UniProtKB/TrEMBL annotation, chain B:
This is ABC transporter substrate-binding protein. SUPFAM superfamilies: Periplasmic binding protein-like II. CDD domains: PBP2_NikA_DppA_OppA_like. GO terms for molecular function: peptide transmembrane transporter activity. It comes from Alloyangia mangrovi.
């Protein structure tokens, strides 16, 4: 049953990816602007313009260009970028994707590590000054534009205090602590929104959970207060939490664009920004396909995780 | 044509650096390169130390000198490669000096002889000899794919390899522009690449450059960094001083500045004008920057729309308050321009231009007189196409619009995205736009291709065959004074018929932290790190 479901989901995924790829390709081609003009800078001749257009295959009909790209793409040949002449698979998949994944994971970890305890405390201390304070914090966090926060963090912690590096990426796989050190400011910047969201969600669901009979039962058994909340309570908010995180992944990936630009991280966000501005059609395609795949993949994982999080969903045959 | 004393011409070009007497003495044997000690390999090799990190905030397309269209790329390319000639600056005058060549001589006014330095090797170990020079020049002139800079060597008829260290270039006409064609702007037509590497990598040479320069290319990670390391076999004595150089590729200049202030990087290859005040206030960095060879202007469409009327164009040209523009749009950092020829064009720029009566400047009365002569006396509505591009983005358009209201032209500002802006400009789909031609060192490249009738870069669509003739005549005259006269006449036509309203010459800034020593500033947007060291 699970297998059939998974296969069905995969089929849907492919259809969605196809639609996404046609739409991106079409939109980019419709947008005014010409990669050859951008490539050649200001000083060029008509002759070199035409020879370059032909060399890059941009003089061919739209459908032929798309079909070419799609056929090569599914075979693992993602093409070569126009300007830098770099292999797009290496650039997008091996270089940019790990950066964005690292940034996204750090933000998620920050969001959970800060958001859940804050939410739990707010729920437990409902209607106290602490609760009100955390509500204000959450509201500000959701409303604050991440790029502005990033710049403020850079100036305060990076330039004023000199505690953290203000830019650059070091892979945590190569040098764990340096990598973490470089991720703290961008990770915090990107996660503010999610910290706030998780705090509110945790508070709301936990308040509901704490009203449930099994909590009353646990208390009646004389279990200590911390155990009632952190074991019986928090375990039961895992499911809504995971669902929301999966759904919000799109927002997270969207946020990486600005965060990566502000902190100069060579991830998918920066790649997509410069590719769109430079009309690097194939790089944009690669970026969008990876993002779409990631989004669909994570939501698939969220679906699959339900039986693990909630034993009641297991083995219903 | 009168007989030109080409020895004298060449001597003039080199005199700033060598001093007149030395030049006259050197004439018998051609001009000796200023740094001739390099011909004894193994002597005075530098001890390299230090890892310099500088931010590069603009797009870098390729590290192939024969294909790039961007100065940000040239800044790096020049540290990896050498040319036949190089640009030098003594604080007052820009000159062209032999680089890979030991001597540069004129046999007659159409034949240039370059004697190369002995024992220079590319980073891949192959020798840099006359054949390599021929290979590079041919690669620009007629290579496949076609180099966008091929036009610079159009007059080159024959490349004669006299012996392994001597190359003779035969031109079909005297070619006054040659030194700039070989070194200047984004062209670098005279930059010498390793033939072995160019053949091996083909179109991928731009990702794997191999030159003779003070630094070797190591790696290029997209959107991240370009790494160079010292070439310990470099031919100039005591260079380079650094062991490693990283160009950190950044999109956000304000982040680069923050990184500089927190000590994470040591400099910026380009400091946007809006950040210069902040840098000035920061005690631990030094700002380099002077007015460079450039000019900015508001372009008017001479092919369609209201600005086909010459009197309306003249009205605009005289209605712009340049002082206000410099203050409001250029943060008070630029210099008012009267004509395109700019300060670093030694011998051509007139230091007294402001009082010479030539060119365009702000005179509202005169503007109103021209406006009164215009065909359409009603209020005219025009579209000004602007984008977040160039050194100051949309600030110019916003400052200009109210000035034109004074003469009954209502400006509709239209903000579009840079790629769309480029396309519309190239197709001539606008009434007004503003732009800047940058990093020019010769009057020819600063006006002729830009305003040649039906030329590819003449986006305003201005046509004037008299202008074309004057520029063409000037191209084959080698003597500066005589050439300058022709360019002045050409400029006067351009300024009078006003396809553009000229605005300013801009300074281009670079910043280095105080730890960086020995940077040699050249007003051609270069970041040559040959002599730079870290303390």
């Amino acid at each position: 049953m699970l297998l059939v479901q998974t296969l069905g989901k995969l089929g849907q995924t492919l259809v969605v990816l196809f639609i996404v790829s046609v739409a991106t390709f079409g939109l980019l081609k419709l947008a005014p602007g010409d990669p050859v003009q951008i490539m050649l800078g200001s000083e060029y001749s008509q002759e070199s313009y035409e020879s370059l257009t032909a060399e890059m295959g941009l003089d061919r009909p739209f459908l032929a260009q798309y079909a070419d790209w799609a056929l090569n793409f599914v075979q693992g040949d993602w093409g070569t970028s126009f300007v830098a002449r770099t292999d797009i698979f290496t650039y997008a998949f091996k270089e940019a994707l790990p950066v964005t994944l690292t940034l996204a994971s750090f933000s998620l970890v920050f969001a959970v590590l800060i958001g859940v305890p804050l939410g739990v405390l707010s729920a437990v201390k409902k209607d106290t000054a602490f609760d009100a304070g955390s509500a204000v914090f959450a509201l500000t966090g959701t409303a604050f534009p991440s790029f502005l926060l990033g710049i403020l963090l850079i100036w305060f912690f990076g330039v004023r205090l000199g505690w953290f590096p203000v830019m650059g990426y070091v892979s945590p796989w190569e040098d764990f602590w340096t990598g973490v050190y470089h991720m703290i400011l961008p990770g915090l910047t990107l996660s503010t929104y999610f910290i706030a969201m998780i705090t509110r969600l945790t508070r709301a669901t936990l308040i509901e959970v704490l009203d449930q009979p099994y909590i009353a039962a646990a208390r009646a058994r004389g279990e200590p207060g911390w155990r009632v909340i952190w074991v019986h309570g928090v375990r039961n908010i895992a499911m809504p939490l995971v669902t929301i995180l999966g759904l919000q992944l799109g927002t997270l990936l969207q946020g990486t664009v600005l965060t990566e630009t502000v902190f100069n991280l060579p991830g998918i966000g920066q790649m997509l920004t410069s590719a769109v501005l430079g009309r690097e059609y194939m790089v944009v395609q690669a970026g969008v396909m990876m993002t779409a795949f990631l989004f669909i993949g994570v939501n698939l994982l969220v679906d699959l995780s339900y039986p693990i999080l909630d034993p009641r969903l297991r083995d219903r045959k | 044509m009168t007989q030109v004393d080409h020895k004298k011409v060449l001597a003039e070009r080199l005199s700033a650096r060598l001093g007149r007497r030395a030049v006259l003495k050197g004439l018998g044997a051609g001009i000796v390169a200023a740094t001739s000690a390099g011909s004894f390999p193994g002597i005075a090799r530098a001890q390299q130390s230090g890892h310099l990190k500088i931010a590069s905030v603009k797009v870098i397309d390729t590290l192939d000198p024969h294909f790039t269209g961007f100065l940000s790329a040239i800044q790096i390319i020049n540290n990896i490669h050498n040319g036949l000639l190089k640009i030098a600056y003594d604080g007052e005058k820009v000159t062209f000096e032999p680089d890979l060549a030991e001597t540069w001589d004129l046999e007659d006014d159409k034949t240039h002889v370059f004697k190369l330095r002995e024992g220079v090797k590319f980073h891949d170990g192959t020798p840099c000899d006359a054949e390599a020079v021929k290979f590079s020049l041919l690669r620009v002139k007629e290579g496949e794919p076609k180099s966008p800079h091929a036009w610079k060597l159009e007059l080159l008829e024959e490349i004669e390899v006299v012996d392994p260290l001597t190359v003779k270039l035969h031109f079909s006409e005297p070619y006054a522009f040659l030194p700039v064609a070989l070194t200047g702007s984004t062209g670098r037509a005279g930059t010498i690449v390793s033939p072995a590497a160019a053949q091996k990598y083909g179109t991928d040479y731009g990702r794997n450059p191999v030159g003779t320069g003070p630094f070797k290319f190591v790696s290029w990670r997209e959107n991240d960094a370009i790494e160079l390391e010292a070439n310990t076999e470099y031919f100039e004595p005591d260079m380079p001083k650094l062991e490693r150089v990283t160009f950190v590729l950044m999109n956000e200049a304000s982040t680069a500045l923050a990184a500089l202030m927190s000590g994470q990087i040591h400099g910026m290859t380009d400091c946007p004008m809006q950040l210069v005040d902040q840098v000035d206030a920061f005690p631990k960095a030094t700002l380099y920057g002077e007015i460079e060879g450039n000019y900015t202007f508001v372009g008017m469409n001479c092919k369609k729309g209201p600005f086909t009327d010459i009197n309306l164009r003249r009205a605009v040209a005289w209605a712009l308050d340049r002082e206000k523009l410099v203050k409001q749009a250029y943060f008070g950092r630029a210099q008012q321009a009267y004509t395109p020829i700019s300060p670093p064009m030694s011998g051509f720029f007139d230091p007294e231009i402001a009082t010479s009566g030539r060119g365009q400047w702000f005179d509202l009365e005169k503007a109103k007189e021209f406006r009164a002569k215009a065909e359409n006396q009603d209020e005219i509505e025009v579209t000004y196409m602007m984008a977040e591009r160039g050194p100051v983005g949309t600030r110019i358009a916003q400052t200009v619009a109210p000035m034109l209201a004074e003469i009954g032209i209502k400006v509709k500002l239209e903000l579009i995205e840079p790629a769309a802006w480029l396309k519309r400009r190239n197709e001539g789909d606008f009434d007004l736009y503003d732009f800047e031609w940058v990093a020019d060192l010769d009057p020819d490249e600063t006006i002729y291709p830009e305003f040649k009738s039906d030329g590819a870069w003449n986006f305003c669509g201005w046509v004037n065959t008299q202008f074309d003739d004057l520029c063409k005549q000037a191209q084959v005259i080698l003597e500066t004074e005589e050439r300058a006269k022709l360019y002045y006449a050409a400029e006067d036509l351009l300024m009078d018929e006003a396809p553009i309203a000229i605005m300013a010459h801009m300074p281009i800034y670079k910043v280095f932290s105080d730890k960086v020593q020995g940077f040699n500033y050249i007003p051609a947007d270069l970041v040559n790190l040959h002599t730079v060291s870290l303390t």
